[in-house]
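Lab notebook, entry 1116. We have the chain sequence and a SMILES string for pyridoxal-5'-phosphate, and the next step in the workflow is to get a structural model of the bound complex before anyone spends time on docking refinements. Request logged below.

Task: model protein plus pyridoxal-5'-phosphate, output structure tokens.
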Amino acid sequence: MSDLTDLYQAVILDHNKRPRNRGRVPQATRVASGDNPTCGDNCTVYLQMDGDRIGKIGFDGSGCAISQASASLMTTQLAGKTLAEAEGQFAEFRDIVTTGKEPEEFSEVAAFAGVHAFPARIKCATLSWHAAIDALKKPDSPVEE
Amino acid sequence: MSDLTDLYQAVILDHNKRPRNRGRVPQATRVASGDNPTCGDNCTVYLQMDGDRIGKIGFDGSGCAISQASASLMTTQLAGKTLAEAEGQFAEFRDIVTTGKEPEEFSEVAAFAGVHAFPARIKCATLSWHAAIDALKKPDSPVEE
Amino acid sequence: MSCDFSNLRLDFPVLDQHVGGHPLVYLDNAATTHKPRAVIDAIARFYERDNSNVHRGLHALSMRATDGYEAARERTAKFINASESAEVVFTSGTTASVNLVAQGWARDNLQPGDVVVCTEMEHHSNMVPWQIVCQQTGATLRYIPVLGENAEGGLDLAAFDELLKEKVKLVAFTHISNTLGTINPAAEICAKAKAAGALTLVDGAQSAGHENVDVQAMDCDFYVFSGHKMAAPTGIGVLYGRKALLDAMSPWQGGGGMISTVAYEGSQWKPSPERFEAGTPNVADAIGLHAAMDYLDSVGRPAIGRHESELAALAYDALSDLPGIRILGPGEGQPRAGLVSFAFEGVHAHDVVTFADQDGVALRGGHHCNQPLMRKLGLPSTTRASFYLYNTPADVDALVASIRRILKFFGVE
Amino acid sequence: MSCDFSNLRLDFPVLDQHVGGHPLVYLDNAATTHKPRAVIDAIARFYERDNSNVHRGLHALSMRATDGYEAARERTAKFINASESAEVVFTSGTTASVNLVAQGWARDNLQPGDVVVCTEMEHHSNMVPWQIVCQQTGATLRYIPVLGENAEGGLDLAAFDELLKEKVKLVAFTHISNTLGTINPAAEICAKAKAAGALTLVDGAQSAGHENVDVQAMDCDFYVFSGHKMAAPTGIGVLYGRKALLDAMSPWQGGGGMISTVAYEGSQWKPSPERFEAGTPNVADAIGLHAAMDYLDSVGRPAIGRHESELAALAYDALSDLPGIRILGPGEGQPRAGLVSFAFEGVHAHDVVTFADQDGVALRGGHHCNQPLMRKLGLPSTTRASFYLYNTPADVDALVASIRRILKFFGVE
Ligand SMILES: Cc1ncc(COP(=O)(O)O)c(C=O)c1O
Ligand SMILES: Cc1ncc(COP(=O)(O)O)c(C=O)c1O
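Result returned:
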């Protein structure tokens, strides 16, 4: 099971078990959702902006360990970032999960390098990132409960 | 080509070349048509009744040598017959073309015994007979030009 | 048992391979089944000897192809005990068969106020076509509920009786649920529907290759199934319909082969089955289907169904012991078709499937084309193990061992 | 010539047989073509190694099957030079593709006063679906006439210009006529239609496997074809459509695989191509189609087209000398696809076909799914010889010798 322990690294198992920033953000001003109709995974990302930077971020939804851990880690990576910065980080993350090449500087996202060996799971890893970028691109407006 | 000369006996070639009773019957009182959508053959039979017997009979339509010869021969066989008699003759004819067994008494229809070896052509041989029986079952009424 | 199932695996070339270093244990049979050598060879033989277009040809190959295609139709009629082969329409699969009836019959015959009844356990393929045609016609789609928090109670037939008080025109339901393993009382449902003046369509995707099917005894109006779920090729399926109904229906597709006359101004149709088979049919795969029916009946469908149910019962018992498991469908000792769907608190089905795959065990995880039922049961997805004639008790052991390892990895057990 | 066509026969197992004591001379290629060993093996290999359902699976076989199916889609996009693989929808054949556009696009977009234009030389499969949808919507179907008493003048493009003055929404026409051998100026017709604001559907059943097809250069909106007419299996076909058009179209069938969400109350669709592929697709035959495309391009489609046209010209010249013959379509020296349709005064096509069959020569006799054109030309039927890459000049000799014997038997020559 060497491939699998690559895929399900300790970091991923940890984020899956104890997700960070899970749940909606009470004063969210931007929200976006994504789903993966093939497997039924879905993810909603809530943002409360601080100027052009993300103030608070949270996520909701259901999916496999990869998608849940990726969403959790994503929230820790994007907090405090602008849209441009977030897009840069997503590009780097996408590179990691599609090619398996590890980032130059150490980062927890390196844990996702194992995903590239499981092409069917790449969508699981990027689902929450897509939702976050979508939310960031929206104008502020009160989010209904 | 032994099979084929069985199929295209002299009788058949002759009826195909010089069909008997070809064309509509001027004072026809019954008419019926049949077609074979698979190959496009069609046949119309016209009857002028004499009591419950066929007085005059004619046919029209287009098709292969088998269907044309069969129609021609059919008209010579059914002239003067009642419905019941015609049905009996048709049953015998159908027997010949599906089994290849020759009739006990000599008859020109024996020429069609070779058809049984070509199942795709059986419908060609029976098309005009079906139309004749259909026409016989109808009530008399003037046939429009 | 008339047949030694442990040797049947040898008839299926695909099973002779390793996945992740382990011998393949294929438990995704409700999605699609494998093909025995006899079926693979029948397709190849057709292309090597008789390949030709059908119906409109008079040369030797064309007559052989036509004979082969029509023999497949007759074999199919016998397989489901239709009263004549003209009641068998070849389609590309169950989904196409349902859509044909939805557009060819329902679209012409439904109006506002009319009701179509299906069930909460339907596959999307026997649900979405009715949603579409109800939207097109203004009719209403109602569902027979499933009972129990794990749907262990099957269909709520009392609720069905209530529904039948409305203007029900059609009841479309699955014979065997691909998600739950429930075996529905098809004849009883058909009888109730008939008494209320409604037609019935039975989705036989999960039953046709697993038990003897008798459409006359069941007394349904339509019965639909797919070849690929019963040891036959992909791309071929069947619509059975009562002859009088079929002959009164509009064609679903126009084209070559289904017309009696065409003029530039308009056209006339042939009777069934040709009316519904526009264009060149899938001759090779119909012939493959014929070979599959012969193969299944040489083993014996009742024996196949018993064998699968036994394996499902073994799996059910072993899985029941695992911590935090929810098993859907019939409870212990209840009749169950050859599949088990289950979910764990804290371990997602897709992770289970990915792990099991590394052990050589092929499972399916997801909504099994039954999203609304999953939502009702409060599950995003389940893992499903589904059995066929070539599976063995050893396959069940491999399944359970793999699941145990997964739970351990995720710290659940 | 880059390829020695005389050896290609060896790639096709079915050709290695005798009919009526003579080596088979198969000249019914416009009805269906034979399959090379590479295609037959690709199908068997799929069932022996990778067979599984696609899209919804995460286990090894399912991923392999999905990859194989999607690779077939990409290969098809390249085969016709579509701009992306999402423009390729797999169907069961040309007829299904046309019906999909008729019901998925035309039914929603036509209204009384609108006009659909097709041609007098259309196959029923590209005529009847438009008759049906025009009846459903109140639109009108008009035909571009063919010119000449043997249709030797091709389409009347001046009449087409006149037709385009009406409210034409769609022009649906065949690239190559299966009855006449006429090669229509597809790019020119598409350009005229586009200038008039109409969409175009090109029936590529007789062109896809016979010449390089470039849907972008042709500038059509839809292009449809069948696998079985280009060395691929029965049961698989293609609808090419511009992405934006496909994404705006209604699904034709509901079911598994084409939905993004399903609730009991209603559903949402995926974008193309999934939207149009409800149910389990014909995976094995898509993979067979892939192998056929590779095979054809290894020979070279332009060379194949030239080879067939040369054989047709040889046949045309030899048959022209026979007494009482009428040859349909392009006259001597005119461009002609690889087929010749002809009729004799006094000898019916079905008798010709039955006789030729005894000489091992497989021909087609009938209306070739073009009844209205036959009626216009005053012929009940014709005999058709149609060529493919494995035919040779010796096959033409066998054809002509057989026809001469038949004429003699019937006392015509
Ligand atoms: C020009 C043309 N269009 C359409 C078709 C229909 O193709 P299919 O029968 O494969 O659907 C054919 C062949 O029969 C054809 O020759
Ligand atoms: C119960 C049921 N109905 C319908 C279908 C649809 O069958 P197909 O995808 O072969 O059209 C399936 C399988 O996917 C099924 O299990």
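Notes for the group: The two ends of chain B are 44 Å apart (CA to CA). Worth checking against the assay data. The beta strands of chain B are 30-36, 41-50, 53-62.
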